[in-house]
């Protein structure tokens, strides 16, 4: 018997995205893969709304708190009266679901084996409060998490791209599917609706595997690999861009929060039309924790928190911090793949020092070089 499918149609989706959404049954576990710019986060939000219409609690999960904020704001425009969806980090949801006294492992993370044992003990007691879970950027979570939620949720829908694994607790698509069970459905989402062809072509240089994505139709300027003489030179260039494009969002991606903090101080002194924002995962609340990602202006963010985000212009501020890393390293390549593909219109890869970092060599034709 074919599972019932929702008839609710949401605006703003491409035909490919609508077809993918409509093809997902409202029962069972599913893994949806797609390249950057294919709309995985948007589709995850739509999927969560569809599942909420079944009457069960539905939670849209992410590992990153900054992505949770973005998903929360997406849901505000999609929510259906009487079918609320909660956006939560995985960490917060586990604490809420399993209560106080959650067992921890020696590394400070959860003891997945103990938690899975608890969930197995509750199996068979599922009722109307057992939630549907939708996980965005699911490649950044360990297989142990998926073995746990297979037992603790009514259904699990995962949106992922294994070419963007940036954490030390990540999973391949196969590992996710295996952990969720043999009956897990698989779907592919194609297309790149974010980047220009030039930005996507540079990102392709860093891609580590998977199917070759279809190049965008939209064209723009070549990405720029720029040498900055100092931190002041870097900050001045960001200020110039923000002044020239006052209605756009400019993302500054750093590999060091010390660099990010120094940039913020310089940007705040510049008197920009929109107050610059900085996200710090160490902040518990306040201006460095809760950002307005919809408004124009500069946002400074660590590379570990960029997944799912997009900006009109992206400046990767400190590429020299990777100079000592093997340029063939899969971890390095995935990091640059993820960072580059955050840019909608313009991209600058900045570096300081006396020598071009090795991973930026040989990119003539894909990028302009400027001193």
UniProtKB/TrEMBL annotation:
InterPro entries: DNA_helicase_UvrD/REP, P-loop_NTPase. It comes from the Bacteria. PANTHER family: DNA HELICASE IV, UVRD / RECB / PCRA DNA HELICASE FAMILY MEMBER. Pfam families: AAA_19. This is AAA family ATPase. SUPFAM superfamilies: P-loop containing nucleoside triphosphate hydrolases (SSF52540).
């Amino acid at each position: 018997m074919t599972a019932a499918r929702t008839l609710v149609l949401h605006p703003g989706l491409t035909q490919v995205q609508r077809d993918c959404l409509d093809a997902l049954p409202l029962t069972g576990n599913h893994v949806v893969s797609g390249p950057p710019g294919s709309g995985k986060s948007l589709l995850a939000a739509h999927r969560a709304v569809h599942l909420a219409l079944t009457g069960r609690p539905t939670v849209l999960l992410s590992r990153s708190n900054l992505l949770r904020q973005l998903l929360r704001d997406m849901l505000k425009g999609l929510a259906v009266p009487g079918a609320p969806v909660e956006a939560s980090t995985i960490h917060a949801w586990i604490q809420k679901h399993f209560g106080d006294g959650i067992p921890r492992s020696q590394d400070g993370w959860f003891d997945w084996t103990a938690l899975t044992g608890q969930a197995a003990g509750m199996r068979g007691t599922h009722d109307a409060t057992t939630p549907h879970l939708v996980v965005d950027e699911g490649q950044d979570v360990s297989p142990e998490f998926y073995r746990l939620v297979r037992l603790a949720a009514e259904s699990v829908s995962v949106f992922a791209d294994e070419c963007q694994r940036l954490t030390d607790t990540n999973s391949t698509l196969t590992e996710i599917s295996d952990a969720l069970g043999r009956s897990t459905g698989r779907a592919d989402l194609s297309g790149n609706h974010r980047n220009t062809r030039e930005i996507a072509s540079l990102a392709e240089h860093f891609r580590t595997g998977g199917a070759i994505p279809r190049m965008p139709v939209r064209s723009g300027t070549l990405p720029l690999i720029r040498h900055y003489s100092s931190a002041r030179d870097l900050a001045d260039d960001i200020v110039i861009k923000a002044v020239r494009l006052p209605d756009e969002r400019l993302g500054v991606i750093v590999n060091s929060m010390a660099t990010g903090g120094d940039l913020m101080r310089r940007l705040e002194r510049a008197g920009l039309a929109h107050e610059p924002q900085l996200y710090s995962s160490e902040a518990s609340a306040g201006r460095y924790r809760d950002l307005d990602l919809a408004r124009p202006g500069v946002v400074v963010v660590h590379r570990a928190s960029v997944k799912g985000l997009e900006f009109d212009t992206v400046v990767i501020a400190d590429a020299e911090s990777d100079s000592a890393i093997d340029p063939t390293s899969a971890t390095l390549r995935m990091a640059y793949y993820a960072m580059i593909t955050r840019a909608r219109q313009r991209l600058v890869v900045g570096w300081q020092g006396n020598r071009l970092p090795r991973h930026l060599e040989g990119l003539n034709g894909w990028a302009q070089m400027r001193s």
